[in-house]
Write a structure and sequence with these properties.
- It contains 19 helices and 15 strands.
- Strands 7-10-11-15-14-13-12 form a seven-stranded mixed β-sheet, sandwiched between helices. It has a three-stranded antiparallel β-sheet with strand order 1-6-2. Strands 3-5-4 form a three-stranded antiparallel β-sheet.
- Strand 13 and strand 14 form a beta hairpin.
Length: about 500
């Protein structure tokens, strides 16, 4: 029976002269044995598994190879030479010349080499004529030298040009320098990996070599679920709110009435956000069955006539418009419900609340917008709160996210006054980017609920997707949410750690 590749390698290694530099290159050994290099690498790894039979040091070798296009040029000639040699002495119209063997690439290269001249005033349009009598195919000659193993003798400029034309490939080949090990032998004795009852019964185990037990080897990872990056960031944000003493408010109603989503927030019924182009309205059930009667009347009055120091919007407020069901456009509707419950208590109790949940908007889909996303919202209700309190708690919140450079810009929201956009300096983009919106809820929103006049409510919100995309280096939101999500990305994503 013919010896295996491993046995042939051992026999060749035995013939090597002793010395500190003794050994074999796996690439040269594969060529000498007439086997594929990968086959020889497999034999090296199998010998390494036997113990100290051989020593193998991994090395990296750079070599140049012809690409498929380069092999074609070596066989048929470069595009510019093929086009030149197929051009008649009398020339051709330019439109016909670019159709010759070599095509537009050959035409451009031949013109750049000044092998052709273009007669623009010729009858019938520009005409291509030979500018020299004969040409030499230096590209083909260079590729022939590469094929013969003389790539390193080519000038660096020539190699770079061939590489740029995708005729030459730079390949890094992993090789091994193989030497005799401390237990070298040409006779292959495979170490046993299991102690069987028969070995114990016969006593044969005493004369058998056993493979050393690797106590550091890891077992197979157990199959388990993986958290989506959004859930990881959500968990971190939730922990930050809890550390700051906030309580989580219920946000389990994706379907909301226009009353709680818009009217209770002092957002007029003719506001553009209430248009079908921006909001998903429901067909069934189309309307909410019940609204708090007394509170609804107060909301109607403050919209239509004003009150609580406000002149209102002075329009005809319609109950049927407020009853329309929709997919909530923000979690502020949940905040409004919570504040209404606080107002109905016998004695007002200050509180800090947060929510992180899904909202829906009729957006045009692109790399940064989806029709559904997650909103993070914080609300603080207490007596005597001011804009200074809001700015202070925003600095505390964002510092826990690792965002310390903040700026505030005045803004407009229908249900907060004053209102502020929050900007942070992005070190990567080298500019200030918006990270959230904030404000103090208007009296027209709070007083109809029944909250005391000296109670103020400060609030802020941001999306969950934007910090997640920044944290995990995702440029397209559709790769984070939806059917285009790569499940391997979910498996591989590390734990979220917000550097606070």
């Amino acid at each position: 029976m013919a010896p295996s590749v491993a046995e042939q390698l051992l026999q060749r290694l035995e013939r090597e002269a002793a010395g500190p530099d003794a050994g074999l290159c796996s690439l040269e050994a594969a060529a000498a044995l007439g086997v594929d290099h990968q086959t020889l690498v497999g034999a090296v790894k199998s010998l390494q598994a036997l113990g100290e039979v051989i020593e193998a040091e991994a090395r990296a070798a750079r070599r140049w190879e012809l690409s498929p296009e380069g092999a074609e040029v070596l066989r048929d000639g470069s595009p510019e030479v093929r086009l030149f040699r197929n051009l008649p002495p009398g020339g051709l119209p330019q439109s016909d010349a670019v159709k010759l063997p070599g095509g537009p690439v050959g035409f451009n290269k031949a013109m750049a080499n000044k092998w052709l001249r273009l007669e623009r005033g010729a009858a019938g349009g520009p005409r291509v004529l030979p500018a020299v009598a004969e040409v030499q195919d230096g590209v083909q000659e260079s590729l022939r030298r590469v094929q013969g193993g003389e790539a390193e003798s080519l000038p660096e400029r020539d190699r770079a040009d061939l590489k740029r034309r995708k005729l030459l490939l730079e390949v890094t080949l992993k090789t091994y320098w193989i030497r005799k090990g401390s237990a070298f032998s040409t006779a292959l004795t495979r170490a046993e990996t299991e102690l069987t009852p028969e070995m114990i019964a016969t006593g044969s185990w005493q004369a058998l070599p056993f493979k050393p037990y690797n106590f550091s080897a890891l077992g197979l990872p157990p199959a388990c679920g993986h958290l989506h990056p959004l859930l990881k960031v959500r968990s971190q944000l939730r922990q930050i709110f809890l550390e700051m003493g906030f309580s989580e408010m219920p946000t389990d109603n994706f379907v909301e009435s226009s009353f709680w989503n818009f009217d209770a927030l002092f957002q007029p019924q003719q506001h553009p956000a209430r248009d079908q182009h921006d909001t998903f309205f429901l067909q069934d059930p189309a309307e909410a069955l019940e609204l708090p009667a007394g509170y609804t009347a107060k909301v109607k009055k403050v919209h239509a006539q004003g009150g609580y120091g406000s002149q209102g919007y002075k329009y005809e407020w319609r109950l049927e418009e407020a009853r329309k069901n929709l997919l909530r456009t923000h979690t502020t509707s949940a905040s409004a419900r919570l504040l209404y419950r606080l107002a109905r208590q016998e004695k007002f109790t200050p509180g800090k609340y947060f929510s992180i949940d899904r909202v829906f908007r009729n957006e045009s889909l692109d790399a940064t917008h989806l029709a559904e996303f997650h909103q993070v919202e914080g609300v603080v209700a207490d007596r005597g709160l001011t804009l200074g309190h809001l700015m202070g708690i925003l600095r505390q919140f964002f510092s826990k996210l690792g965002i310390t450079q903040l700026r505030f810009k005045p803004a407009y929201n229908p249900y907060t006054e004053p209102s502020m956009e929050v900007f942070s300096y992005h070190e990567g983009l080298k500019k200030w980017v918006e990270v959230g919106n904030s404000g103090v809820f208007r009296p027209e929103m709070l007083l109809p609920m029944g909250l005391p006049e000296n109670v103020s409510v400060i609030a802020w919100g941001l999306s969950l997707e934007r910090p997640t995309m920044i944290k995990y280096g995702i440029n397209n939101i559709r790769e984070l949410v939806g059917h285009r999500v790569n499940l391997q990305m979910v498996y591989d994503s590390p734990l979220c750690r917000l550097d606070g």
